[in-house]
Specification:
Blueprint (H helix, E strand, L loop, with lengths): L2 H9 L6 H6 L10 H17 L35 H16 L6 E7 L2 H14 L7 H17 L2 E2 L6 E6 L4 E6 L2 E9 L18 H13 L3 E6 L8 E13 L8 H9 L4 E9 L1 H9 L3 E10 L16 E5 L12 E13 L4 E8 L5 H6 L5 E2 L2 H4 L4 E12 L2
Parallel strand pairs: 1-2, 1-3, 7-14
Antiparallel strand pairs: 3-4, 5-7, 5-8, 6-7, 9-12, 9-14, 10-11, 10-13, 11-12
The protein binds zinc ion.
Length: about 400
């Protein structure tokens, strides 16, 4: 279909405003708004008519135009048959969006919308007449118009990639929803005490987690809604982590985006339970990165056995050995029963008393250390308890290094 044909088809029945007309030709020429395109095309068609060409269109489309050679009778066309004069109305709607945005601190934003469904139907009808070769969608034009108006009213910037806030405006229900981008803070932590979990337990079995302690000052700074700690692996609740473990703290739906890392670090390190260091602002990609890291870890265990210690040299058999671990009994309810193989990269031991042994061991990520020591009813093979023919009474375990550098 050529341009002339498209143009007459578009104006054949009802009245179509400049913006809706121009939008069907949005990809032709740059440097023009759709409104300008529509105006040019309407004038062009009017000139053809004035020159004497017979063109079958709804003459009310030329109500604003003064003909010179021909007499063309027109009536006031009223509202646009496609958009129903939506666009002048949009400016009023923007106030509602801006009001909602004002609850947050932000520099950049993006707007998405759901156009009224009847309007989409009318757009469809028009496309059946003129095709979609050069068109822009009404949805995209609404986004742009709203965006420019928000920019004008707020002085903030529209941004396609990773905007601070994405506005979702439903024109059917007049509802404005905001999607506020999380803040991400990278760092490393030490857990200095036992019996606190890494992440917040919503059931509150444990009143405080590493996550809560780390997040607290950031929550205060940002007045955020929630937080999530993404750790590079985790230690058991009763295990201290004296080695520095990488993490990314995600601050969800922050009201403010300005962070004082130094101040937060000092607050956390005053807790005596958790230390943090190497803080930096990062993005969501870092979460995937630290989640996929599989660093070796070194542990120190203080183990009390039932009988007096003997045959300790047998522990050396574990040096560089690949051990076979079935999913431990203690986590079977939460995790699938499968076999994992992990290498013991280094192992040392020292007897502290007659029944108390200190073991330092470096293993691949994901090794169950307690099970390596007590054997878990034979589910871990080989294991220290079997090797030295003794039974474990208790284990105190510390992570002493996360080998991630
Ligand atoms: Zn229109």
């Amino acid at each position: 279909m050529k341009l002339n044909e498209k143009l007459t088809n578009a104006l054949k029945e009802g009245y179509v405003c400049d913006r809706c007309l121009g939008r069907q030709f949005a990809q032709l020429l740059s440097g023009y708004t759709n409104e300008e395109r529509g105006e040019i095309l309407r004038q062009y068609l009017a000139m053809l008519i004035d020159s004497g060409e017979k063109i079958e269109v709804n003459k009310n489309n030329f109500h604003s135009i003064k003909f010179h050679l021909k007499t063309v009778k027109t009536e006031n066309p009223g509202k646009c048959s496609v958009c129903g004069n939506l666009f002048p109305e949009l400016k009023k709607k923007v106030k509602k969006i801006v009001k909602k945005l004002n609850e947050y601190e932000y520099e950049t934003f993006l707007i998405g919308n759901r156009p009224p469904s009847e309007l989409l139907k009318k757009e469809q009808v028009l496309w059946e007449k003129v095709g979609i070769e050069w068109c822009e969608t009404i949805k995209s034009e609404i986004n742009r118009v709203l965006g420019k108006e928000v920019e004008f009213l707020t002085g903030k910037r529209m941004k396609r990639r990773l905007p601070d806030i994405t506005v979702l405006y439903d024109l059917n229900t007049d509802e404005v929803k905001l999607n506020v981008r999380s803040l991400f803070i990278y760092g490393k932590y030490q857990k200095l005490v036992r019996d606190i979990p890494q992440t917040t337990w919503k059931t509150r079995i444990y009143p405080v987690a590493v996550e809560d302690i780390v997040a607290k000052p950031f929550m205060k700074q940002t007045e955020a809604e929630d937080h999530t700690l993404h750790g590079c692996g985790r230690e058991d609740v009763d295990v201290k982590c004296l080695g520095w473990r990488p993490f990314v703290l995600e601050v969800v739906k922050p009201k403010k985006r300005e962070l004082d890392l130094e101040k937060a670090l000092k607050k956390v390190n005053k807790s005596k339970k958790v230390n943090i260091k190497d803080l930096e602002i990062t993005n969501h990609k870092r979460v995937t990165k630290i989640k996929s890291m599989r660093p070796d870890k070194s542990y120190r265990a203080e183990v009390i056995f039932e009988k007096s210690l003997e045959n300790l040299e047998k522990i050396e058999e574990l040096q560089d050995k690949v051990i076979r671990q079935e999913t431990p009994n203690r986590v079977l309810t939460r995790r699938a029963d499968k076999v994992r193989k992990r290498r013991v990269k280094d192992i040392k031991y020292k007897s502290l008393t007659k029944k108390k042994l200190e073991i330092t061991v470096k293993t691949q990520a994901g090794t169950y250390i307690k099970e390596l020591i007590h054997g878990d009813d034979g589910r871990t093979q080989p294991n220290i308890a079997d090797l030295i023919d003794n039974k474990v009474k208790s284990i105190k375990l510390d992570v002493i290094k996360v080998h991630c550098d």
